[in-house]
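User: For documentation purposes, I need each entry recorded in a consistent format: the amino acid sequence on its own, followed directly by the corresponding structure tokens. There are two entries in this batch. Please keep commentary to a minimum and don't merge the entries.

Assistant: Recorded as requested. Entry 1:
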Amino acid sequence: MTHSSTTSKPIGTGVLARHQAELDAGRFLIQRCGACQRAVYFPRVLCPHCGAEEPALVAPAGTGAVYAVTTVRRKPEAGGDYNVSIVELDEGVRLMSRVEGMPPADVRIGLRVRARVVVPPGGSGIVVFDAITGDAA
């Protein structure tokens, strides 16, 4: 992956650049291998399961469950505490992110969550999660 000298956005046409361009456009994609049909995340040139070349970028269901979580402590004037979570998507892949919209202490292993993409002004798109409540959980 190549980065420009003034931003952290990847440049080029590789799979990481295409993945980041989709995130920057507000779309969260994972890969699915056409040979073994397994899901892959973080995007790679070769399927880590069977070695097939460049699995296709596809839209996941966007739902999953918190697999692990920790709370990062910060002073209130620095923004306060936040959680760092590993979320296992329903497709079976895991990614590190955070669960927003609830106190960090309320984020628990097994909590059902839904992905959404956040693109800060002038920044790069990232995936964060919101808790699924009610019958949808």
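Entry 2:
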Amino acid sequence: MHNSSTTPKLGRGQPMPVVGAPPKERLFCRYTGLPFTRITLWHGCILLVTLLLMASGAAAATQTDELSVLGTLIKWTPLLFQGFLLNLLMSALAMGIGTAIGVFLGLAQISLMPPVRTSSWLLTQLLRNSPWLVTLFYVMYLIPFEFEVFGVLVIMPDWVKATFGLSLPVLANVSEIVRGGIQSIPETQWEASTSLAFSRKQTLWMIVIPQCLKRMLPPWMNLYAIVTMATVLGNIVGVSEALTLTRDILASEAKTDMLLPMYGYILVFFFLYIYPISRLTIYLERKWTVKG
């Protein structure tokens, strides 16, 4: 029988309570504590409209046809795309090198041997809390531009040295992702595995790591998006990536009205590539969030 005394009554003019799906919670990165910024398709539309307005304004300021600005952008698109591909190659290699070393560095942080655990923690903190640009300069001056291997002269291109410089902060962040992912597994699973005669190595690779992978993937993808955006730092150390080529094109065109449209064009390149990664990261973070 329904008890009417326990049912709250609404007064006149009082708003009805909302019944249905709970409000969406704002997502925070588990490892950095920073909130994920929701980037919608409207941001891309606003970016494109801004680019077109800049192009129109530049054409009107110089009393030239709008197509001249757009035509200049189209003319230089193959070269800019070539530079953008170098940005993507640098980011992929930096993530590959950083992930391969960072996984072992993260495993060393949970080692039972104090010297290994302490030294890996110190290296991780040193690289993770150093400015990326300072690390990049340090590597660029530390690695020679050519050296001999078994009598063969090997020339080291600037973009290879820059890629190695970007991989250093990557490996430190991957190390923290691995350490945090492993330590997020409840201690009871380690104890249960030990009671079933599993060794520590077997527990780690057969029970803990498979559960950690889906927890590590969203922050790893977020790190990849950050590294891709950071590859434009190669412009400062002389790498012929997209931003360097943009500057060279502006110098060759000698048109001040092309300044904003050209940089906006590069902005669109990066946005179109990173936006799907950002959306996929948010989707996976929601799907694999551990509740409770």
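Summary note for entry 2:
Confidence is low (pLDDT under 50) at residues 1-8, 16-22.
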